């Protein structure tokens, strides 16, 4: 197969591992920076170009679109989907997961456990907003933040009011969530592939930090999931419409709660912590499902 990887960083661990796994299985791989692409949108032969050349046809695409280029990267992915290319994650699924507020609303509608979450845009709403999530301490999150950036723990009511007023004064889009103290600075990353959780790790924040992101100095260890945690992770990924997802859970007193569903989960931490070849599993999944799509398209007479 000819496989495209949409990524701005060919040198990044996850991109390199996917290239290695695909080449090892006999596939041709091209890493494409989506922001360097431009598109010919027409009803007969849509195409994608870069540096004056038509990139041609691909059998499958692995989107590793950075959060800062979600809009344009998703447009490139939609163009590939229009061209009949199998995408391991759909553009719609990526858009759902990147909108933190929308993803929380979708998960809530499906009855999936979440921290109590509040959203408002007026300073006059702050007192009730704080009460709504159970008071301080609470967590304030920028909707556009990634890798723990833009996430603030407000330990007192006064601190919460000050942080919320500051963000609102900057016209930033924020949401407020209850603080799950019993998690003790740890969360669980469940790596979902299709209808299975193929790997899971526990991420522990460094001393004095409540954010467990590995980019912020957190550590990762192998963890055994409960049947309930496995079920919640699968339901969360399915709700977003994602085949490949990193579902972040907290262990709360009332069961597992979903913090985030990531459509481009990193491979370095999960492969190191679990000693599993996640990259190879993704390529195997693509082989199986891209071939299914090609067969179905041929039966329907779709070229």
From TrEMBL:
Sequence positions that bind Mg(2+) 2: 260, 262
PROSITE patterns per record: ATP_GRASP
Pfam families assigned: RimK, Rimk_N
Residue span(s) of domain ATP-grasp: 104-287
Annotated keywords: ATP-binding, Ligase, Magnesium, Manganese, Metal-binding, Nucleotide-binding, Protein biosynthesis, Ribonucleoprotein, Ribosomal protein
Required cofactor(s): Mg(2+); Mn(2+)
Top EC class of this enzyme: ligase
One cellular component (GO) term of this entry: ribosome
Enzyme nomenclature, EC number: 6.3.2.-
GO MF annotations, alphabetized: ligase activity
Name of the protein in question: Probable alpha-L-glutamate ligase
Organism: Shewanella metallivivens
């Amino acid at each position: 197969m000819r496989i495209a990887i949409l990524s701005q960083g060919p040198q990044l661990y996850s991109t390199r591992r996917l290239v290695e796994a695909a080449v090892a299985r006999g596939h041709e791989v091209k890493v494409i920076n989506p922001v360097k692409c431009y598109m010919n949108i027409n009803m007969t032969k849509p195409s994608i170009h870069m540096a004056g050349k038509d990139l041609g046809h691909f059998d499958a695409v692995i989107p590793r679109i950075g959060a800062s280029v979600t809009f344009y990267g998703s447009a490139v992915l939609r163009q590939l989907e229009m061209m009949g290319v199998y995408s391991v994650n759909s553009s719609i699924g990526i858009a759902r997961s990147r909108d933190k507020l929308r993803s929380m609303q979708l998960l809530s509608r499906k009855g999936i456990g979440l921290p109590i979450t509040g959203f408002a845009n007026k300073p006059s709403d702050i007192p009730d907003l704080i009460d709504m999530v159970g008071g301080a301490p609470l967590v304030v999150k920028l909707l556009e933040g990634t890798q723990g950036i833009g996430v603030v723990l407000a330990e007192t009511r006064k601190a919460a009011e000050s942080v919320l007023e500051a963000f609102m004064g900057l016209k930033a889009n924020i949401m407020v969530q209850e603080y799950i103290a019993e998690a003790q600075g740890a969360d669980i990353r469940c790596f979902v592939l299709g209808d299975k959780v193929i790997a899971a790790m526990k991420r522990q924040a460094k001393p004095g930090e409540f954010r467990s992101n590995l980019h912020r100095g957190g550590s990762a260890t192998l963890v055994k999931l409960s049947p309930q945690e496995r079920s919640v992770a699968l339901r969360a990924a399915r709700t977003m419409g994602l085949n490949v997802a990193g579902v972040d859970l907290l262990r709360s007193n009332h069961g597992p709660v979903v913090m985030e569903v990531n459509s481009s989960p990193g491979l370095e931490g999960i492969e190191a912590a679990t000693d599993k070849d996640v990259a190879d599993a993704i390529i195997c999944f693509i082989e199986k499902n891209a071939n299914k799509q090609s067969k179905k398209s041929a039966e329907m007479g779709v070229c």
